[in-house]
Amino acid sequence: MKYLSLFLLSSMLIFSSCSKGPKPIDFGHENCHYCKMLIADPKFGAEAVSKTGKVFKYDAVECLIMDLKSGGIEKDKMADYYVITFDKPGTLIPASEATFLISQKLPSPMGAYLSAFSSRESAEAKSREKGGELYSWEEVRKKITGN
Questions:
Q1: Rounded to an integer, what is the distance from CA 7 to the centroid of its chain?
Q2: pLDDT tens-digit profile of 58-99?
Q3: Between the CA atoms of 133, 138, 141 and 146, what dihedral angle is there, to the nearest 10 degrees?
Q4: 101 with 131: CB under 8 angstroms?
Q5: d(CA 75, CA 97)
Q6: How far apart are CA 16 and CA 12, in angstroms?
Q7: How many other CB atoms sit within 10 Å of the CB of residue 48?
Q8: pLDDT digits (tens, 9 = 90+) for 28-45
Q9: Is 78 helix (H, G, I), strand (E, B) or coil?
């Protein structure tokens, strides 16, 4: 019975530590997987989560996109992508649910002027204020990579 209890406890710990979702970014203490810059601004950032649960963190959405393009992370081994939303700093949402704004009046950490928003309405409001173009996840990936 003692060994069964130990086995069950060990199993629970192992499986609970294999979460396949995003992990909070420790701003000011973690570095971007792609460019190695310190992830400092809670209005920007992204994560790629592999099918095995490994999390790759980025200081900007454009770093995630360029890491995918360069093969630094393999698309077929990723479960999902998450982005920090400009309108809700520090909040990660699935990239496929975000609306992206590229505006020359809204700088991002790596100079692509790219921000993610939690809703199309929020992105449209910022676009009316700052100008720029709105994109979906697939559209912004093509825009940044030129593919």
A1: 35
A2: 999 999 999 999 999 999 999 999 999 999 999 999 999 999
A3: -80
A4: no
A5: 18
A6: 6
A7: 26
A8: 999 999 999 999 999 999
A9: strand
Contact 68, 75 (CB under 8 A): yes
Structure tokens at 30: 């973690």
Which structure tokens are listed for 138?
A: 């697939």
Under 8 Å between Cβ of 115 and 106: yes
Using the Cα atoms of residue 132, residue 133, residue 138 and residue 144 in order, give the sign of their dihedral: negative
Structural domain spans, the chain:
20-145
For residue 14, the SS3 value is helix
Residue with tokens 């520090």: 90
Length of the chain, please? 147
